[in-house]
Design brief:
Layout (H helix, E strand, L loop, with lengths): L11 E2 L7 E6 L4 H4 L5 H10 L2 H4 L1 E5 L5 E7 L10 H11 L4 E6 L5 H13 L18 E3 H7 L2 H22 L7 H11 L6 E6 H7 L1 H7 L7 E8 L8 E6 L1 E5 L8 H4 L7 H15 L5 E11 L11 E3 L5 E3 L7 H12 L8 E6 L3 H7 L5 E4 L2 H14 L4 E2 L17 E2 L8 H10 L8 E5 L3 E2 L9 E2 L4 H14 L1
Parallel strand pairs: 1-6, 2-4, 2-5, 5-6, 9-11, 9-14, 10-11, 13-17, 14-18, 15-16
Antiparallel strand pairs: 3-4, 7-8, 8-11, 12-13, 15-18, 19-20
Helix pairs in contact: 4-5, 5-7, 7-12, 9-10, 10-13, 12-17, 13-16, 15-17
């Protein structure tokens, strides 16, 4: 299957031949009394027919008693699931198939307007295994001309880039594992970035076995062989921008290996490449925006299967940096991929300003924080504060957990090898992060994101399935960081 990203604007319309209907946004019901854009007759109709204070939404007729427009009350809040992003997505599903012209009767700040447009766009996502049929059932559209009257054109383009990055990540996570094998994943990535001046190096077969022993050790048991992608992009050939590296765990399916998962635990394991999908979505958005950055993306990919070549508990394998690693539970394979990728990321002559890895790494993080809140670990306070604060502002939160160094003792064993899982039965997200930290140089600023990458329940704009958790957080954090340099 040749997956191609949809470059069309979803839920937005530039067709000037189609007459638009006004969609008025207000913050206060009393604003209806002050506007002259709606006639007194229409105001009376709204007041008598719809209780806007309860429903936050209502239609009104034109002079011929046809649909004249709609009014929506927006509630200003940054609380997840109640934000303007969610309000806009919910509103989109209520409106009939028409071209709508957005008008603000109350003053919305730039972020509120941006969030409304983003939420509107998110409501049109729908995964379909047939790419040409994706998102074909569009209920309605927003008039682009009116949008550009409300926010700057570059802000609208930025919003579209974020939407496309999110849709790319969601699509990749939702693809079935027999289609998204490591080698097919490579083809999809190259196809998605073919219009950009990216440099993509692939390590596979003997080249992978020689250079990335842990990645090869995890993936050698599958007929779908492992590989590593190294993607580089820069706004300028001159090294005048910040150097940022993103790493994404790309386990395209996880059976658990010899420590095989039960059927219930294996059901969603096509999403075990969610970290790589989010990283690709971040990269796609940043490159589309022409962000002033030297960006590097490293994607270790493998399928964790069962065969006569499967890794075994208590096997010892030397990592890329020559650290002997003793295999604990074979279902903890993701950290092995990341270990070699982290080592590789720090071997450049040009040092990264910071390195961030994304991974669907531990069930322990889900136990601690639930499925909707990614766990953040970092060795740098400034980087951690940037991510946490941006998550709040973008309503794409993370929660920081500690790199509690006393737990490092659980990774030790009598053979002087580093245990991949440790001996503790608790604190699994922390010990996993501490394992990764062993492959991070002391002078490298690093953050690790342990995420679910899947919506277990759906709502407007956020359907059940793959989710780009943390994408908007990191995209906007990187933009601000680069613009400060």
């Amino acid at each position: 299957m040749d997956y191609k990203i949809d470059n069309k604007l979803i839920g937005f319309c530039e067709n000037k031949k189609i007459n638009s209907i006004p969609l008025y946004l207000i913050k206060d019901i009393n604003s209806l009394k002050l506007t002259s854009l709606i006639s007194e007759k229409q105001k009376i109709f709204l007041k008598s027919t719809f209780n806007l204070e309860l429903e936050n939404f209502g239609f009104f007729p034109d002079e011929d008693n046809h649909l004249g427009g709609a009014v929506a009350i927006l509630t200003e809040t940054i609380e997840p699931r109640k934000s303007i992003i969610d309000q806009a997505a919910k509103l989109s599903e209520k409106l009939p198939k028409k071209k709508w012209a957005l008008e603000c009767l109350d003053e919305l700040n730039n972020q509120e307007t941006y969030n409304f447009i983003l939420g509107w766009g998110l409501s049109f996502y729908k995964f379909n295994i047939k790419p040409n049929n994706k998102r074909s059932n569009i209920n309605q559209t927003l008039c682009i001309k009116n949008i550009k009257d409300l926010i700057k054109e570059n802000e609208f383009q930025k919003c579209c880039a974020e939407l496309k990055g999110i849709f790319l990540a969601r699509d990749l996570i939702n693809l079935p594992p027999n289609i998204l094998t490591p080698y097919n994943y490579e083809k999809i990535v190259k196809n998605c970035f073919k219009d950009f001046s990216t440099k993509i190096d692939t390590y596979k077969d003997k080249k992978l076995e020689k250079n990335f022993p842990l990645i090869n050790f995890v993936g050698r048991s599958s007929e779908n062989k492992p590989l590593l992608l190294d993607i580089k992009w820069s706004k300028s050939k001159k090294n005048i921008f910040p150097n940022i590296t993103l790493i994404g765990k790309g386990v395209t399916f996880d059976s658990g290996g010899l420590d095989v998962k039960p059927s219930s635990g294996m059901m969603l394991m096509k999403k075990d490449m969610g970290g790589s999908a989010v990283v690709l979505g971040i990269a796609y958005a940043l490159i589309s925006m022409n962000c002033p950055v030297n960006l590097r993306v490293i994607l270790p990919m493998a399928e964790n299967s069962i065969s006569d070549k499967s890794m075994r508990p208590l096997d010892v394998i030397y990592a890329r940096n020559n650290t002997p690693v003793e295999i604990g539970n074979t279902d903890a394979e993701g950290r092995l991929l990341l270990a070699d990728a982290l080592t590789f990321s720090q071997e450049n002559n040009v040092k990264s300003d910071f390195v961030i890895d994304f991974a669907t790494l531990t069930g322990a993080a889900r136990v601690a924080l639930g499925t909707e809140l990614p766990a953040l670990f970092t060795n740098d306070n400034d980087l951690g504060e940037r991510i946490i604060n941006e998550g709040k502002e973008q309503i794409d939160p993370m929660w920081e957990l500690p790199l509690f160094s006393p737990y490092e003792r659980y990774l030790e064993n009598k053979y002087d090898a580093l245990s991949s899982t440790g001996s503790a039965g608790t604190g699994g997200a922390i010990t996993a992060a501490l394992f990764l930290k062993k492959f991070v140089d002391t002078d490298t600023k690093w953050a690790h994101v342990d995420l679910m990458a899947w919506n277990t329940s759906g709502r407007p704009g956020f359907p059940v399935g793959g989710e780009a958790m943390g994408l908007r957080n990191i995209v906007n954090m990187i933009i601000k960081y680069c613009n400060q340099k």
